[in-house]
Write a structure and sequence with these properties.
- This is NodB homology domain-containing protein.
- Keywords: Hydrolase, Metal-binding.
- Pfam families: Polysacc_deac_1.
- The N and C termini lie close together (about 10 Å).
- This protein has a single domain, classed as Glycoside hydrolase/deacetylase (TIM Barrel, Alpha-Beta Barrel), CATH 3.20.20.
- Helix 4 packs parallel to helix 10, helix 7 crosses helix 8 and helix 9 packs parallel to helix 10.
- The radius of gyration is 17 Å and the shape is globular.
- It is α/β, with parallel strands linked by helices.
- Strands 4, 5, 6, 9, 10 and 11 form a 6-stranded parallel beta sheet that branches. The chain has a 3-stranded antiparallel beta sheet with strand order 1-2-3, with no helix packed on it. A two-stranded parallel sheet has the order 7-8.
- The relative contact order is 0.21.
- The protein is about 35% helix and about 15% strand.
- Bound molecules: zinc ion.
- Zinc ion (ZN) binds next to strand 4.
């Protein structure tokens, strides 16, 4: 299943990585807990994120459910951990060893320039069985770029990390041009349903609570393994993995990302 390609949809929430912007758009209605700057507010109106709930994202509630999602429906629960803004020489290895400890798979939305600086880490993420998505080459707000600019950001990143089937726009800023370019490259636009807000560094306890409280079967959980100090993310992740595993969750890579 290709998230976002079917009916050209994009998923769930838009919250800026490393900004104060917070936005959740549900079924066309927008509620905002934003402290965004004027430019961000403008970007927000352009985001127009059409929403699927996380179960739909995972293919759980629709007929075309992937095998893994069907498995989840039959029994255990599944959650999708996603890590943006890496790879990072210090933090990505810590994330990888924690994931390994819990036999968890995840999806890493990598920045092309960071991947270029850490090629061994890209290989390690793949070798450990995780999925890799495209998070642009230099992390610009894509809704500010031309189609050619967006294309270049995605193509240059794929040149480093290999061809990707999914992308996540920095800050969650998408518009029709972004969707169109992504589609033309065979990439699903993948957002998230649970924001840990780890980018705001609120403390490891808050990071884990932000993940655990709203988490349910099919949740796509947003965290970061790069783009700043991520000790809180690592500590929060440990709690999330431990708690959710005990609750019967399995952690899978996103079906849209290979
Ligand atoms: Zn990002």
């Amino acid at each position: 299943m290709r998230i976002g390609r079917r009916a050209g949809r994009t998923i769930v929430a838009a919250v800026a990585c490393a900004t104060a912007l917070s936005l959740v758009s549900i079924e066309g209605q927008t509620s905002s807990a934003s402290t965004a700057a004027p430019g961000q507010a403008q970007a927000r109106t352009q985001t127009q994120t059409q929403v699927l709930n996380a179960a739909q994202v995972a293919g759980v509630s629709k007929g075309k459910a992937p095998r893994k999602a069907n498995k989840a429906r039959r029994g255990g629960k599944v959650a999708y951990l996603t890590f943006d803004d890496g790879p990072n020489a210090r933090f990505t290895p810590q994330v990888l060893s924690l994931l390994k400890q819990y036999n968890a798979k995840a999806t890493f939305f990598m920045i092309g320039s960071s991947a270029k600086a850490n090629p061994a880490l890209v290989r390690r993420v793949r070798a450990q069985g995780h999925a890799i998505g495209n998070h642009t080459y230099s992390h610009p707000w894509l809704n500010k770029l031309s189609a050619a600019g967006i294309r270049s950001q995605l193509t240059r990143t794929d040149a480093v990390i290999g061809r990707t089937t999914c992308m996540r726009p920095p800050g969650g800023f998408v518009n029709n041009t972004v969707r169109k370019v992504a589609r033309s490259q065979g990439k699903s636009v993948v957002m998230w349903s649970v924001d840990t807000r780890d980018w705001a560094r609120p403390g490891a306890g808050v990071v884990s609570r932000n993940a655990l409280r709203p988490a349910r079967n099919g949740s796509i959980i947003l965290t970061h393994d790069g783009g700043g100090p991520r000790q809180q993310t690592i500590a929060g992740l440990r709690t999330v993995l431990k708690t959710m595993t005990a609750q019967g969750y399995r952690f899978e890579k996103l079906p849209a990302c290979r």
